[in-house]
Amino acid sequence: MTVAGLSGVTKRHGETVVLDDVSLGFTENRIHGLLGRNGAGKTTIMQILTGQNFETSGKVEVFGEHPYENDRVLRDVCFIKESQKYPDMFAVHHALTAASLLYENWDAEFAAELVEEFALPPKRRIKKLSRGQMSAVGVIIGLASRAKLTFFDEPYLGLDAVARHRFYELLLADYAEHPRTIVLSTHLIDEISDLLEHVTLVDKGRVLLDGDSDELRASAVTVTGPARSVAEFAADHTELHREQLGGFLRVTLSGAIPERSPEDLHVEPVSLQQLVVRTTQQATGERGFVGAAHERGTRS
Ligand SMILES: Nc1ncnc2c1ncn2[C@@H]1O[C@H](COP(=O)(O)OP(=O)(O)OP(=O)(O)O)[C@@H](O)[C@H]1O
């Protein structure tokens, strides 16, 4: 069941088209990745779905209703972003108390455990916290709120690598015990790709990819080997990308892993990160992509 979705949504700021006829949906009890380059429109999508921004046209539904100024909807929605502002006097514990009043599924015990886990000084004012500690405040609120629909708009980027991995572990463990819909927006695709069950890729306000992660991973392969052999093999496939590595060639090809391939070739499924990069390059016609015209021509 789709809990939050956009249907033919366009968002304009004056002459600038920020979202261009976007349709997407986030399914109940699933971890979604909302991916895309800087300025792609990810934050705008999340703002519209959390009632913090307006669509110019199209249909927006969260739990079957429009979210704007809609308490019935918003009490089940948590939006965690890096730029979250708190009143000047707020200490960590004030932010947690405010969150406990806002979210009906708030788990105070879990929040206290997370404060210890991320070694946060509860009485320190938020504006005095380090960047990583500020990110931890957001991460803790996002997890302990247990909202039916939780958006994380890159708040964990301020955490160091060790703390980020701990966040991913905690998220997965808590999600297993308390299934809900989680949307993660990030540039660090490799880091979170194992977490994601569904991926939506946006670029320049348009949806480029939208599908189940495993199906997307199975939709392309990387083939590496002696240049001539790879080129011969690639000739029969739709090529998404080509990289020369000395006498070797690496190509990304559209399609499933072939049952048989020449012995001197190494064929592996594409990683989510590669797929995202290649698809975005293809859409923007960036250098490094061979066969863009063909691929574009074959897309419906
Ligand atoms: N109020 C505004 N007026 C004009 N343009 C805006 C406004 N808000 C956002 N934009 C533009 O909309 C586009 C999408 O912005 P958005 O913040 O949604 O992207 P994003 O995918 O979240 O990017 P990032 O990964 O860099 O955070 C950008 O080009 C941005 O400059």
TrEMBL record:
Source organism (scientific name): Actinopolyspora xinjiangensis
Alphabetical keyword list: ATP-binding, Nucleotide-binding
Entry keyword annotation includes Hydrolase: no
One term of GO molecular function: ATP hydrolysis activity
Domain ABC transporter: 4-229
Lineage: Bacteria, Bacillati, Actinomycetota, Actinomycetes, Actinopolysporales
CDD domains: ABC_DR_subfamily_A
Protein name stated in the entry: ABC-2 type transport system ATP-binding protein
SMART domains: AAA
